[in-house]
Specification:
The protein is α+β, with helices and mostly antiparallel strands. It has 16 helices and 7 strands. Helices cover about 50% and strands about 10% of the residues. The chain is globular and about 60 Å long.
């Protein structure tokens, strides 16, 4: 089996381990339960598997019964925890530059997230698209949004600024926790995950702005980025194109290659380099999306089949039975295949 191209900065796991242990969990027990090497935190400057990072947060939500665990943990990450990525925003000359630096240097932290900025209705929106290729992302997305909000508020000092939050996830049970941490301007079931910051604060200097320190930190960030500590994730880029093609109803090799601005043969070679065929990649994206749609419970099965590019509901039902071991209806009810027929593979923890 090919090694996963999804990688994160190991310091993120070190921080999460500290948070997890503060909640009373044993790191070794969690590693055993999920299926990864607990020694992954031994080298904070190394890289680790994105699947592990995602699954830890979903695991915490399951075992605690708290579907706001991600937004809670994101608000509690101490300033400076993610080092260069933190300070390249905190020391920037303006809030606008801080946001731009998050977009520029996202790959310092991982290669599974794409950040973008846009202006709309008097706000600058920071959008965070975490890949759905590596497992459920609800809790990690909430953590990332909460982390960003905490940093923005820190940089603005005591300024009273109303931030807005759009989430793709369904409304959580623990909605009051979201409101307590983020405020009341929150929407769920949106097209993208994003934070809205008023344009009038874009030229405000962050609380920690310091020109000489910023020049040093930016230089360090550029060196880390150019050093390709975390490689570009070609498979994830392809998967995003497949996702778009599915929405348009044509997940063909030709369509995806066109979206990638590549020839069909070049796309096939890129897939081969990552140990997958195009058919396998489409199937994996479909499986991840099916899991997301079924768990959200908002769409009819026929609608899900259509969104996944299946012309017949029966074809989708057969695919779901292959993926989950049970029918789509049963999976939506929370039923799973017997453990003996669906063993859980160990998650890779290291970057090698």
């Amino acid at each position: 089996m090919a090694k996963s191209p999804g990688k994160i900065y190991a310091q993120l796991l070190v921080s999460t381990r500290a948070q997890l242990e503060a909640l009373g969990f044993d790191w070794g027990d969690v590693a055993s339960e999920i299926g990864f090497d607990p020694k992954v935190t031994d080298d904070p400057e190394g890289v680790a598997s994105s699947e592990v990072y995602l699954e830890i947060h979903e695991y915490l939500a399951r075992v605690t019964g708290n579907d706001a665990i991600g937004v809670t943990l994101g608000s509690q990450v101490p300033v400076g925890t993610v080092k260069v990525f933190d300070y390249v925003a905190l020391t920037a000359p303006t809030i606008a530059q801080s946001l731009e630096n998050w977009r520029r240097f996202e790959r310092i932290l991982s290669n599974i997230t794409q950040s973008s900025l846009s202006d709309e209705n008097g706000k600058r929106y920071l959008s965070l698209q975490i890949s759905n290729l590596y497992g459920p992302r609800t809790q990690l997305t909430a953590k990332a949004m909460s982390f960003a909000a905490s940093r923005i508020r820190h940089m603005l000092g005591g300024m009273e600024v109303e931030l807005s939050f759009d989430f793709t996830q369904v409304r959580p049970r623990e909605i009051e926790t979201y409101r307590r941490i983020l405020g009341r301007n929150i929407r769920f079931g949106c097209e993208e995950d994003r934070i809205g910051i008023p344009l009038e604060v874009m030229n405000v200097a962050p609380l920690g702005a310091e020109e000489n320190l910023y020049q040093l930190v930016e230089k360090t960030a550029l060196a880390r980025l150019s050093g390709k500590h975390i490689e570009e994730n070609h498979l994830d880029n392809i998967s995003r194109a497949i996702n778009e093609a599915l929405k348009e109803g044509d997940p063909s090799l030709e369509t995806v290659a066109r979206k990638m601005a590549m020839s069909k043969r070049a796309l096939q070679r890129k897939m081969e380099e990552n140990g997958q065929t195009f058919r396998q990649a489409v199937d994996r994206v479909r499986k991840v999306l099916a899991e997301q749609y079924l768990k959200e419970g908002k769409l009819q099965l026929s609608e899900i089949a259509y969104l996944l590019g299946y012309s017949e509901l029966s074809t989708f039902s057969r695919a779901a039975k292959t993926w989950f071991g049970v029918s789509p209806k049963a999976y939506r009810r929370g039923e799973t295949a017997p453990a003996a027929s669906s063993p859980r593979p160990a998650l890779r923890a290291g970057g090698a």
